[in-house]
What we know:
two-stranded antiparallel ribbon, 5 strands
Amino acid sequence: MKESEDHVLTTEEATKYLKISKPTYFKCIQVRKINAIKVGSGWRVLQSELNKFLKSGRTTSKRRTTRRNGHLLKDVNPNE
């Protein structure tokens, strides 16, 4: 898919495209498996980002993040 043909998808469209639940989708955004941006009260993602996610074959994260008062304290991936 050419960059000029890339489509911007809403949360509803993205979850239907991936055939996953909204909580799973939001978790993937949170752990940065899917690169999306917050627009108003919703999220937008490029279809090419969803294709990258699907090609990676990774749906769960082994990355552990600790936050306190909204600040990132530790971001560890045991495989790195």
